[in-house]
Design brief:
The complex is a heterodimer of chains A (114) and B (111). Chain A is mainly β. Chain A has no helices and eleven strands. Classes of the chains: A mainly beta (114), B mainly beta (111).
């Protein structure tokens, strides 16, 4: 375990479903991130939170909705997804907003949209 | 447009070989370059490089950054099957929380 825990590990959902991904970190980090990893593509930054405040939203469609209730928890709410949204979703945390000590990643949620 | 390019995309070597993985970048407001090892799912942090010409080492792994030519290399000596993974390079910008990742190099070490 890396100290960043993601649940569920696998998720299959229909295009009309609503589901949420959860990320929890026990490292005392101040910044948390959502990344999307698709096959043969670089990791894509989706959202960044510093001290619970969203500081980055990289043109992510509104069918992805993040929530950060506190510095230790991060959610990604999903609704009306498309098959092309199938990917590995990685959560990461870092000590400070510019990742001075690098990221710590969770194990990811493998999402399949059918 | 900011980008990070890794090469080769994949590599198969025998145990004991030495490999060199490459990462070149075109990123404005460069702050640092990071290497990660991704086995199965969670990428794990290897190195952070901020200064040119200073080699960072951890066991059989080492890395160096060239800020003039805009690239970094990751060397692995005496490879072992446990080194099989995808190695990711990421470049951090000074402006906000911007990390740009390459597509990774998939390394397979066969006995």
């Amino acid at each position: 375990e890396t100290g960043v825990t993601q649940t569920p590990r696998h998720l299959v959902m229909g295009m009309t479903n609503k589901k949420s991904l959860k990320c929890e970190q026990h490292l005392g980090h101040n910044a948390m991130y959502w990344y999307k990893q698709s096959a043969k593509k670089p990791l894509e930054l989706m959202f960044v939170y510093n001290f619970k405040e969203q500081t980055e939203n990289n043109s992510v469609p509104s069918r992805f909705s993040p929530e950060c209730p506190n510095s230790s928890h991060l959610f990604l709410h999903l609704h009306t997804l498309q098959p092309e949204d199938s990917a590995l979703y990685l959560c990461a945390s870092s000590q400070g907003p510019q990742g001075n000590y690098g990221y710590t990643f969770g194990s990811g949620t493998r999402l399949t949209v059918v | 447009e900011d980008k990070v390019v890794q090469s080769p995309l994949s590599l198969v070597v025998h145990e004991g070989d030495t490999v060199t993985l490459n990462c070149s970048y075109e990123v404005t407001n460069f702050r640092s370059l990071l290497w990660y090892k991704q086995e199965k799912k969670a990428p794990t942090f290897l190195f952070m490089l901020t200064s040119s010409g200073i080699e960072k080492k951890s066991g059989r792994l080492s890395s160096i950054l060239d800020k003039k030519e805009l690239f970094s290399i990751l060397n692995i000596t005496a490879t072992q099957t446990g080194d099989s993974a995808v190695y990711l390079c990421a470049v951090e910008k000074n402006t906000g929380n911007q990390f740009y990742f390459g597509t990774g190099t998939s390394l397979t070490v066969i006995p």
